[in-house]
From TrEMBL:
Gene3D superfamilies: 2.60.40.770. GO terms for molecular function: sterol binding. It comes from Eutrema salsugineum. Keywords: Signal. This is MD-2-related lipid-recognition domain-containing protein. SMART domains: ML. PANTHER family: MD-2-RELATED LIPID RECOGNITION DOMAIN-CONTAINING PROTEIN _ ML DOMAIN-CONTAINING PROTEIN, NIEMANN PICK TYPE C2 PROTEIN NPC2-RELATED. InterPro entries: Ig_E-set, ML_dom, ML_PG-PI_TP, NPC2-like. The lineage of its organism: Eukaryota, Viridiplantae, Streptophyta, Embryophyta, Tracheophyta.
Amino acid sequence: MSKFSRFSIALSYFLFVSTITGATDVKYCDNNAEYEVKVQGVDISPYPIARGEPATFSISANTDTVISSGKLVIEVSYFGWHIHSETHELCDETKCPVAIGDFLVAHSQVLPGYTPPGSYSLKMKMLDGHKKQLTCIKFSFEIGFGSSVADI
């Protein structure tokens, strides 16, 4: 196999994998805050998100304190307009108690087939069991125009 063929195969594989999962730029809500939970990144799979199909948001983070319970408060905006809020039990999205060190919070959801395609922004606050804010992040994501399931 020629070098060009191997390069072409490697490039095709990279492009295929990069469309399945997308890492997104994460910003803290308050750059001056000293959050107890430090977020290292967010991966979204598949990326862009397809309407009518499951999408998973995986948030990798680190903590210096044990977290025994809490909530995730999520706010979604579409072109700057607040369109959706939801709250989840932290222990439904990760194993509790959360030990000191690295951990992963993963949330999966199916977006309705009528969800408009485009750019969205998400703000997520993580609160402990006493409603103390442990972290607050925001990031953008895309919902694609099509899906692999026909909209009926």
